[in-house]
Amino acid sequence: MWTKKLWVLGIIGAILTTTACSSGSGNAADGNKSDKPLSADGKTIVTLTMLDSSPFYEALEKKFEAKYPDIDLRINSYLKAGENMDGAAYEKFKKMTNTAVLAGKGGDIIEASALPVNDYIDKKLLLDMDDYISKDNGLDKNDFQMNVLESLKLKGGLYTIPEGYSMRVFIGDGDVIGDQKLNDKEWNWKEFADASKELLAKVGQSGSSARYALANDPPEVVLQWIVMDSYGAWVDAAGKKASFDSPEFINLMEEIKKMYNEGIITSKPAEMGQQLFYTTVLRSPGDFIEGLHAYFKNPKLLTMPHNGPASGNRIIPNSQFVIQAKSPVKEEALKFISFLLSEEGQSIEGRSGLSFLQSVNYNKLDGIQEQVKSGGYKLPDGQSVQVGDDDFDQFKDVLKQGGSFDDLDVQVIKSVWEESTQYFNGQKPAADVAKLIQNRTSLYLNE
Prior knowledge:
Elements (H helix, E strand, L loop, with lengths): L1 H12 L30 E7 L4 H13 L3 E7 L9 H16 L6 E3 L5 H6 L7 H6 L10 H6 L9 E13 H4 L11 H17 L13 H11 L1 H4 E2 L4 E2 L4 H15 L15 E6 L7 H4 L5 E4 L10 E11 L6 H12 L1 H4 L11 H17 L14 H13 L1 E2 L5 H15 L5 H16 L2
Parallel strand pairs: 1-2, 1-3, 9-10
Antiparallel strand pairs: 3-9, 4-7, 4-8, 4-9, 5-6
């Protein structure tokens, strides 16, 4: 079940692009108008290529062209209305798009969530937008979630801009945690295990039915999402190196197995409420309420345990856009990026994820806060919720703090899952399995 979830996430995140015809080869920075592709009515053509469009992008196109009437934005979607993507179509599309980018062809703007962006940066195929974003007077930098944008930088530059972002967080049962202090801003998985033992002992003394810190997933799956949330601790994507054979990773595998052996975590199915903690993804300001209360009546928002340097919750970008360095309309393409990051662009109905503008996120949270106070806010099941002002302050602090982003590679995550089962089912020692993961990952990274 988890494998399917992982690959679905990988496919959803792999919204790529299709080759789009864009005539002209001049440089937007120093070329003449005649160097740029023009429509029949004299507008500059800018192509945006992606796997699948949506009503949000249709609205974005109309509003962008209304603001810039001299630009003809053309969205080229690989999938037509009503078409579904299967694995074969996805792989064909990915290969075709990669070939186009390496040849300097395709769209001016490309949705490149699962393309090898680091390789493109090395080959100088993408435009670094950092300088433009920092100097663009049309944007209010004081309103940016700069911590999130900073976390998205690769090799010192800002080469990708998403339409929004999501954040993976940890949720605890506030009724059980009570006043117990959890150092969740800095805790690792061993400290999580120690804290869970104390909490489970407290639950046991209360006479409640059996509970677990985590349930439902086998150890190789838990290892998998731990690696995803601390990917940079094990993989240096830019340097094409991995450290899965390190003592730290071997200790991590042993710690996970120990938690299962001691009954802190179980792979057995558990009903809602039997777990002390859950991990979930916040995709909108409303998820700070609905997403948390889906698990507990009194949820406590926490930071995921981590291995490696403390860096906060994991940032998951939604639909990352790049600009081809050889595009003849870089100037116009940058205007699109600027519009996407503007209050007007970020406020269009249907945009996915949390906003890069604090004002957009905070206004939505303030509206929810007023509804909660008046009793007008209801959960999907019709129940009211009790959320204090301090909780809303915490939500805003979490957004301010941002988090960490690593350019995950699904093949690396798959290798961790497939090879680690040999340790968790007792076939091989942890050190031997760590070497298998290291060798397999190193070969893949250097292909």
